Amino acid sequence: MRLLLAIVILAVVALVGARLTQLRPRLPLGLREILLTGHEYIFLGVLLGGVGLDVLDVDTLKQLEPAMLFTLSWVGFLFGLQFEVRALRELRRYYFIIATFQAVLTFAVVAAACYVLMQRLAIGDPALHLSAAMVLGSAACCTAPSALALVVRTRTCENNKLVALLRYISGVDGLYGLLFFALAIAVFPTAGAVELDLVQSLKWLFVTLFAGAVPALVLASLNRMRFTPQELLVFLIGTVMFCAGLAALTSRAPLVTGMVCGVITANYCRHRMRALTVVAHAERSFYVILLLLIGASWTFHLDYAFALLLVYFLVRMAGKLVGAYTSTRLFQLEYDAPITWGLGLIPEGGLAIALIFSFSLVHHGPLVDAIFTVIVFSVLISELLGPRLVQHVLRTKGG
Fold first, then answer.
1. Global pTM?
2. Is the pLDDT reported for residue 30 higher than 80?
3. Is 371 part of any domain?
4. How is residue 192 annotated by DSSP?
5. Residue at 13 is within a domain
6. DSSP assignment of 119-134, as one string?
């Protein structure tokens, strides 16, 4: 009975919430950004979870695990669908170089700083320190495109070339986050592993690619068929379910298998553009469900979390700033960009939360709870500050 009640509540909130996120209330930009991304539903999930009404208790969440895997796979699938190789080749090459440089630098400095702090403070299980630090580094790479979209929609921007660069980087940063996350899991594919096992790592990568490729190839085999939008949505949901099921069966990360499935679909499926439109339209409802489940699963662990949050947030900001500045000096742009243009990459986005949530499905303990808390608060802070920082960057003249 509790499971049925939970399913009804999730369905109703998802349908209503998907429409509410499209509203444009007259609020400060930071609050509008949070409402746009829907991250307030994390706290509604907390209220429905064990901390609050206990509708989504531990047993119910265990029964809803297939929904968690499906929604995570759906998020990965949506990101993968955006990366068609032919379309990316048409863009300026230095966009890719700049995006890669700042993402790699941010990942490296955040992972290193968090690892040192975990070692110094002896947070949680030492065997998890390196993999947890790498996952935090992968989350730090992510940039939310919604803040830039919100600012561009509300004011006229003179530097359209800088807007294009920011839009490109915020669009591809999630891919780097997913790739680094896959690397972190592949290096330590089993809980408690502290040494690199090349055979196990290669096996993890191969099985992950297989779990993502099979559903995509099944979908691509239907290229000659014509679908109505409703039929295509059903096929896409079935494809992502298949992908999530293979991820669960092989104990792989559904975010990564979903991304692999999406990338293959984007490059080999004739219906890729229609698929992207359908998935993006349906994404809000599934994303609200994911946020509710994340909130209900959230175990507050404040020991060391604030110290880790401070280091993570400041080092991430420094990585974005230094990476952006250095890359534009090494690879000359056709225009002058402000010295602090990396501030436009501070908004973090929901993919970072999804990465940590995916990690928490495999690993447990105080350290995982702490980094979960760190990322949730970091995303909320970056969304409150993000639109103003983007405005500052677009108003500042190049130097």
1. 0.89
2. no
3. yes
4. T
5. no
6. HHHT-S-GGGHHHHHH
What per-residue confidence (pLDDT) applies to 232? Answer: 79
* Amino acid type, 276: L
Contact 45, 56 (CB under 8 A): yes
Angle among Cα 343, 300, 286 to the nearest 5 degrees reads 70
Six-digit token string for 391: 């405005």
Report yes or no on 22 lying in a domain: no
What tokens does 364 get?
């447990």
As given in the structure block, the two tokens for residue 39 are 């991250």
Q: Helices 145-154 and 160-187 meet at what angle, rounded to 10?
A: 170
Quote the CA–CA distance of 393 and 214 in Å, as a whole number.
43
Task: Report the largest interatomic distance among the alpha carbons of the chain, rounded to a whole angstrom.
Answer: 63
CATH number at residue 225: 1.20.1530.20
In the chain, the number of structural domains is: 1
**Structural domain boundaries, residue 314:** 27-189+196-395
Select the more confidently predicted residue: 272 or 342: 342
Tokens 């742009």 — which residue? Answer: 333
Find all residues with CB under 8 Å of 199, minimum gap 6, and list them.
Answer: none
**Cα angle value 3/9/13 (rounded, 5°):** 150
- Nearest CA to 351 out of 389, 311, 323, 382 is that of 382
Half-sphere exposure of 175 (CA within 13 A, CB side): 19
122 occurs within a structural domain? yes
DSSP summary character for residue 190: S
What's 222's DSSP letter? T
C-alpha to C-alpha distance for 371 and 357, rounded to whole angstroms: 10
Q: Confirm if 229 and 184 have CB atoms less than 8 A apart.
A: no
Helices 272-297, 2-20: inter-axial angle, 10-degree rounding: 120
